[in-house]
Design brief:
single chain; alpha/beta; eight-stranded parallel barrel; 9 helices
């Protein structure tokens, strides 16, 4: 069975009027998209030297079952002048859906994308996500939180706030700090939380497991990276060979009941990262099997 459609759960009746709407959310990633207990695949940015169609093919070749798109990637070799984003025409969307079906890859997330405060403009992004059947959207648009929350409730689509590394020359940039992200999302709909970019936490000299625990229960998705060292000059390495402590990260995500997608965003060996990406997926597959997830 292909995991290119979300499960239809039917009509769910709340036990009491006090049950929040998010508790009855129907938008889930189906179990046949899991590898080693996680919906793991690629952030298409891993293959940003290639086209969307090639990113889909390479994700499948690496052993992934899901993909997270980003805005601006060239569509295909056949359409070099066409870029893929939330403004895509119905014809382009259908081409991408056909390629996904052919490769047996499920789209689950989209970002990092700026979400405007303007509801009409933000709605275009959520409509795109709905059309593609996405679980979530990834952003850093904290200033649009009120608009985001309204549309999250309407569309039942999750939103994760992404962290880039600490910027010593820009004290106004605070997304690197999990405590700040928590302060943004803690009083909001439970479908709003963190896109936990583990590698960028390492680049900020933070321990990933500590960050995950700060954000307990609010992890929407993850850009999972293992890096060769702590600090801003680190680069990606295959899971289990770096300093991110990937086993501890996976254990913590499972302990929290994490149900989102895990994206490999491999930002090293750009032209030939596929073997290392496949090794990352193999690590999760094997570790999950050993833990009986």
């Amino acid at each position: 069975m292909l995991c290119n459609r979300y499960l239809s759960l039917g009509i769910i009746l709340a036990a009491t009027l006090s049950v929040p709407r998010w508790a009855c959310a129907q938008n889930k990633i189906p179990s046949d998209c899991l590898t080693g207990g996680f919906a793991i695949g690629c952030q298409a940015y891993t293959f940003n030297h290639f086209t969307v169609f090639e990113a889909i093919e390479k994700t499948a070749e690496a052993g992934g079952k899901v993909i997270e798109f980003y805005p601006g990637q060239k569509l295909s070799k056949e359409d070099p002048g066409v870029s893929w984003d939330h403004n895509a025409s119905p014809e382009i969307i259908q081409k991408v859906k056909a390629k996904l079906a052919e490769s047996k890859i499920t789209p689950v997330n989209y970002g990092v994308v700026q979400i405007p405060k303007d509801e009409a403009k933000a709605r275009v992004i959520f409509e795109f996500a709905k059309t593609m059947g996405l679980y979530g959207i990834t952003t850093e648009s904290v200033e649009s939180i009120d608009t985001i929350e309204k549309l999250v409730k309407e569309y039942d689509i999750h939103v994760g706030f992404h962290d880039h590394p600490r910027r010593p020359g820009d004290p106004n940039y605070r997304m690197w700090d999990p405590n700040y992200v928590l302060s943004v999302v803690k009083d909001r709909d439970r479908r709003i939380g963190s896109c936990a970019d583990v590698g960028h936490w390492v680049r900020s000299n933070l321990r990933p497991v500590d960050c995950l625990r700060i954000l307990k229960g609010r992890i929407i998705s993850s850009h999972l990276k293992d890096l060769n060292q702590m600090g801003p000059d680190a680069h990606d390495v295959p899971y289990g060979t770096g300093v991110s402590d990937i086993p501890a990260v996976l254990n913590e995500l499972k302990a929290q009941g994490f149900a989102g997608n895990v994206s490999i965003e491999y930002e090293y060996h750009w032209e030939n990262s596929l073997p290392e990406v496949a090794q990352c997926i193999g690590f999760v597959r094997g570790y999950g099997a050993a833990r009986k997830w």
